[in-house]
Amino acid sequence: MEDLRFLDLPVEIREIVYQDLLCTWELKHNRERAFLSTRFNNPTAILRVNRQVYYEAYDYLVKHNQFIRVDCDGISIRSDPLGRQILPVTEVPEKVSQFNGYVARIKWTTNSDPLRKGSRKQYMVLGRQFPDILKATDYHIMTQWPAITMTIIVDPISTNRAEVTTTSLRPFQTALLHTIPTFLHAFPGLSIQGSSVSRNLAARIIHETAQPRWMTTTAALSDILWFKHNNDRLGKEANFVSTNTAIECGLKTIEYMRSSPAWPNLMLSGGVSFAHAVAELAFELRVGRAQRALDAMERSQCRRNLVEGFAEHVDADLGRCLLFVPSHNHQDTWSPSEEQVAVVMCMSARKHRLLLDAESRDSAVAAAEHAFQMFPENEMIRREKEAIAAWSGNVDRYLNEVWVSNSGVVLEMWQWWEQEEKSCDC
Q1: Same domain, residue pair 247 and 194
Q2: Which of 199-213, 224-238, 254-268 is modeled with the greatest confidence?
């Protein structure tokens, strides 16, 4: 039996797919779980399948959809370092200006990044991507540029599409506004304008959006865990740059949380156990990033400049992993466990091994041995102890064979190691 292709389906079935991908919109999150809770969806990807699908889907999209116009000043909805993006229907200024029938217009700007200020972009996006636009705004507020303003204008619909009227789309416009406090938190830069919005509704949405970001300890921990899970996902792709970004955002979230007005209430409800849980997540994020940098060092052997650059990242994170963390009023403190100390010691020893730091060989061997004695059941520590022992033997061989045999002329150790690696590969 031959495989059934998408274009083999009746056009009525294909239109159901187009309807579900491009036009259907519903809110599936609540305030407690909405912050960066999912990756952005990509409903317009179907437009790139082939020419016939493009024309069919685009025609259906235009005739059966609701659109939002987004004007960005200093921010781009298409640049998200976490690997997510909103794909607009069009971003050609001429087409955007000629587009009619959009249910809302968003003006999005930042005043705190002079390098990007003045970089103006216009987009026409699907109405169903409004939650993604709000998540992008929330992301920028949290991690990038706090000085963001967002104006949402909701006016009567002006369009030549006979099936679209202001009356038929008024519930959709209202639903858009009710979505805002779900995805935007602690945001004082929102304004809502337009003759299709009641002043009372606009005032209530603005007030709810300005409420503290974290109402419960569960929501606060979920936000940090999102970045940790994203780091784990990106780590599987061996992408140090993206992983570094995800972890940096998670650490910024923790700093923002501890200094925010919501922290005293979170501490009151969660107590020391909550503060310690946040500290544990901070430790895991830093160790995770150091581990990715160490893996990058391993992959970059024979490229000394890269190895040394990644080693600086390792030092920066490991140097802060074992710090005591005040939990509340500087009274109770979090401190790392013995196993955590052993893991950090082992990772530091691995850094010296990957740097081919012969001068630190003895301390690296001692650190690996000590870590193994503390936790011999840890597989990572055991493997590193064996690797460092082998490296120590190579250092001895280098000193005895290479240095002596060259009558005192010390061969560059990195070049020697590269030759050894090539001979092993053979």
Answers
A1: no
A2: 199-213
